[in-house]
Specification:
The chain has 193 residues and is mainly alpha-helical. Strands 1-2-3 form a three-stranded antiparallel β-sheet. It contains nine helices and three strands. The radius of gyration is 18 Å and the shape is globular.
Length: 193
């Protein structure tokens, strides 16, 4: 169906607004930021524990927020070549005709990831509000500009460097685990340079 002129204008304005850089990239979470968040937790607050669990699981597996939400309490794994593999249906491939696999296969390579699998299976994780992540992750003495924010995408942003440094994976593997069509996307937008 043809779009009305005012709808076309609204769409064009939205794209222009997005291209002008108003939407900023999330700051990546790394091991130090994860430790800082954990040290700031109120361990008596059940929500804080669930929110932290969500952040850690998203970070360890490089999950998009909607992917993390969907697998809580509904974890699917398989064994391939002697390794346990987390299966995650990709949210970005629903309307994608690129031939990209609809299911990501992320190997469970360390004890921290295995712990996260148990957390996800038990359902003791819940997506926090982005403002909570930002507040818990920032260093109190450091100055941040208004575009430097941690949010629900921050754990995914840090996963590439975690896999490269801590789990000794190749950039090609990182791109596969993140579900990127091209390794260029992983290099340009997810690798800390």
């Amino acid at each position: 169906e043809r779009l009305r002129a005012n709808a076309k204008t609204a769409i064009n304005e939205a794209h222009k607004f997005k291209q002008e850089g108003v939407r900023t990239s999330a700051l990546p979470i790394d091991e130090n930021v994860l430790k800082r968040i954990k040290s700031n937790l109120d361990i008596k607050n059940e929500n804080h524990i669930k929110w932290f669990n969500w952040v850690e699981c998203s970070y360890r597996f490089g999950l998009r927020p909607s992917e993390a939400d969907r697998i809580i309490g509904n974890v699917e794994t398989t064994f391939e070549n002697g390794a346990e593999i987390l299966l995650v249906e990709q949210t970005k491939t629903v309307f994608d005709n690129s031939g990209r696999d609809k299911v990501k296969r992320i190997p469970i390579l360390c004890d921290e990831q295995q712990k996260c699998i148990e957390i996800l299976r038990s359902g003791t994780a819940e997506r926090p509000h982005p403002k909570w992540i930002d507040k818990m992750a920032k260093e109190p003495q450091k100055k941040y500009n208004r575009f430097q924010k941690y949010d629900c995408y921050s754990p995914r942003k840090g996963a590439t460097d975690y896999w490269l440094k801590e789990l000794e994976q190749s950039l090609e593997n990182c791109a596969l685990f993140l579900g990127h069509r091209s390794i260029d996307t992983t290099w340009k937008h997810y690798k800390d340079k």
